[in-house]
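Reading a protein record of the kind used here takes little practice once its layout is understood. Each number in the token line that follows is a code from a learned vocabulary of backbone shapes. One such record is shown here in full, so that the layout can be seen directly:
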Amino acid sequence: MGDTQGTRERVLALLLELGTATAATLSERLEVTPAGIRRHLDALLAEGVVTTREPRRRVVTRGRPAKLYALSEAGHAAGPSAYDDLAVSALRFMSPDQVQAFADARGRELEQRYDGLGTPEELATALSADGYAASVTDQGLAGLHGVQLCQHHCPVQHVAAEFPQLCDAETAALSRVLDVHVQRLATIAHGDGVCTTFVPRKASGKAPV
């Protein structure tokens, strides 16, 4: 039983990291047989902490397309959470202007907390320490175009799903912290597996040699 629970925790941790993954990917990364990984996934689906979703891009392949697995709302909720249903109820009593003011204030708090972190890598480390499970991946050759800052857990996903102002304020705060205009590509609150933000490479100001 201990080994079984440990493997399922590893599955959940990897889905948190990747956002979505096929059974084949999970099997390879965790070094568990395909049959074994499917047993664990079936159990996690039954528990409601994992869900399936269709690939966004349709690729022409033989046979049925590989099913993608991701953490459900319950699976994400098992991680650290800064807000709960009480916060949602409280915001529902606010006017739109009051909700925006709250979101802006939270954005300023994030900016102050991460002030001085000049690179996406430093910011990802700090976000991970605060429960966001963040990572950075290069975009373009050796990050020539920029990087994607991925947050694999959203402490405010339940609130942000109803009040997107929180996501907008967070994105604006990240822009100010990194001193560059960033673009939010996806959010957990709106059904994506990972919160993804594109951070463009800063211009060096030097002429090409």
About this structure: The chain has nine helices and seven strands. The domain at 2-77 is CATH 1.10.10.10 (Arc Repressor Mutant, subunit A). The chain has a mean pLDDT of 82.
